[in-house]
């Protein structure tokens, strides 16, 4: 299933048990709000967090922001009830953790059978086993609600026993392959979180790297990260101008039927026209926010 194209530059997680943070999210410039029931919530607060997430979705007030509930896994004491509650609440998407294979996607899809048709399934890409099954997990989108992936680099680091270096070298293979598999099946894909809350320069650098890898946006953990992330994941004025020039050039009668043309001193092929059209659509969707 393919998601409706919309800006997903910044996706802010918050513990659904933190009513103050959930309320604050209604005023923040993030494109997506993720109400977390999983790792941000202590076991003794799981049930209250579930109830608060449902109430927040029902109360609304998130405006243009896409609303997502991240549930606990089906292999935990809370997963089944979380999925039932999330299906009834009907957010834009339900994000499921630690997916290992296509059968896991199918199980989560079945657990969401009562959800509104518009509610999508998103999956965390954060286990070693899933990295060797990216193709079959992405292909499950053809028969289920699956429409998006979110990288879980904290869990991946834990499993791999990798260091989270500034350049994220230990994760390059996982990040690149996940983006390629997601794109092969038309899935959205968001980058993992940056844990250093006060390090704006480091955040900006990993946001730039996320754009380089091809991610649609990045998951975040604090409101102060939103502005940097939105800026870096928005197409620049220069990129939009170039894209518009490519679209205009291919529309000229003298270029009809051509596969490659010269635009402002650079080669543009029909594949660049497709990229240009997508970039302008993203820029217009951002401008509309
Ligand atoms: C990381 C935090 C625990 C830091 O909390 P704290 O130091 O208390 O924050 P501040 O005092 O700076 O907060 C200032 C105000 O901002 C609000 N706030 C803080 N965080 C958020 C948020 N995420 N969303 C909305 N609002 C937030 C505070 O309420 C303050 O408001 P006010 O008093 O009105 O000024 C905390 O930021 C936090 O809990 N972050 C989210 C943690 C989380 O959700 N983690 C789970 C997702 S990460 C993950 O699991 C990734 C993945 O699975 C993987 O494996 O990689
Ligand atoms: Mg995780």
From TrEMBL:
Keywords annotated in UniProt: Lyase, Magnesium, Metal-binding
Ranges of residues in domain HpcH/HpaI aldolase/citrate lyase: 9-223
Gene Ontology MF terms: citryl-CoA lyase activity
Names of required cofactors: Mg(2+)
EC code: 4.1.3.34
Pfam families: HpcH_HpaI
Keyword Cell cycle: no
InterPro entries given in the database record: Aldolase/citrate-lyase_domain (IPR005000), Citrate_lyase_beta/mcl1/mcl2 (IPR011206), Pyrv/PenolPyrv_kinase-like_dom (IPR015813), Pyrv_kinase-like_dom_sf (IPR040442)
Signal sequence coordinates: none
Family in the record: Belongs to the HpcH/HpaI aldolase family.
Classification via PANTHER family: CITRATE LYASE SUBUNIT BETA, LYASE BETA SUBUNIT, PUTATIVE (AFU_ORTHOLOGUE AFUA_4G13030)-RELATED
Protein name: Citrate lyase subunit beta/citryl-CoA lyase
Organism the protein comes from: Caulobacter ginsengisoli
